[in-house]
Every structure is written in C-alpha cells, then in structure tokens.
C-alpha cells in the first residue's frame, strides 16, 4: 500500500491510499522496471511482435496496477487506432497504451488489449525455475 498526498481546491493536503495488486506467487509475471509493481501475467501475453516508440513491445490481454489517460486517435504502423496511454499506478511512468478502437476490421482483435514497451518492464517470479525444469 502506498500513501499519496494531494492538494484540493482549498489548498488542503489530503492523503489517499493506492492499493497495489499482486499477481499470484509462483506465476511468471512482468513488473515495472522503475518500481517493480506487478503489471501482467505471462499467461495474459498475446504477442511479442509489437513495436513501441522506444523499441520492442508486448501485447497483453489484461494488466494490473495501470492507470489510463484519455483516448486519442493515432496513426500507428498498422493504421488508425483510438488509443489511451497507460501508466504505472504506483510510480506514474508511462508504459505503453491501450487499444480502445481499431478502425480497420483486420485490427479489431486489438480492442481492449494493452501494449507495454520492454524498456519499462522486467520479468519477475519463477522465470529461472521454469528454465531449469525445461532443461531436465
């Protein structure tokens, strides 16, 4: 749990609690490289074949500990989409985007899915153990 301070319109300081969601122990997951908050389970990974503004990016079915900005139309490599930037709820770093709407029928499968750039995430939990099991 993280306690954040903010000011209201009367310049009074308020404390708000941000509750962090933790993915199940033992699951391979991806976490924020900046604060190590869990972001997504490996089981929700759809594709590793995406490109973000800072290099490779992964497409996920669902994510946790994410905030979403307002949707806007952008022309991406695969055409026009309505996307919303996503950021880490814990450290506020922009991580990628959420596909809100795809204008081309071939891209509709992306709607409601999330892109996280590799530059902003690390592998956590059980990655080493799964490599050992495969080599046995």
TrEMBL record:
GO molecular function: metal ion binding
Keyword vocabulary terms for this entry: Metal-binding, Zinc
Keyword Transferase: no
Entry protein name: Protein yippee-like
Segments forming domain Yippee: 28-125
Record InterPro entries: Yippee (IPR034751), Yippee/Mis18/Cereblon (IPR004910), Yippee_fam (IPR039058)
UniProt record similarity statement: Belongs to the yippee family.
PANTHER family: PROTEIN YIPPEE-LIKE CG15309-RELATED (PTHR13848)
Stored Pfam families: Yippee-Mis18
């Amino acid at each position: 749990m993280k306690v954040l301070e903010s000011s209201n319109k009367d310049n009074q300081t308020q404390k708000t609690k941000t509750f962090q969601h933790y993915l199940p122990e033992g699951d391979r997951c991806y976490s924020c490289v900046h604060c190590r908050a869990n972001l997504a389970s490996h089981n929700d990974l759809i594709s590793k074949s995406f490109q973000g503004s800072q290099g490779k990016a992964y497409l996920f079915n669902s994510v946790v500990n994410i905030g979403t900005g307002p949707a806007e139309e952008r022309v991406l490599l695969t055409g026009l989409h309505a996307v919303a930037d996503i950021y880490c709820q814990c450290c506020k770093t922009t991580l990628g985007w959420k596909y809100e709407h795809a204008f081309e029928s071939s891209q509709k499968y992306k709607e409601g899915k999330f892109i996280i750039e590799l530059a902003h995430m690390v592998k956590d939990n059980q990655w080493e153990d799964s490599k050992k099991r495969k080599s046995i």
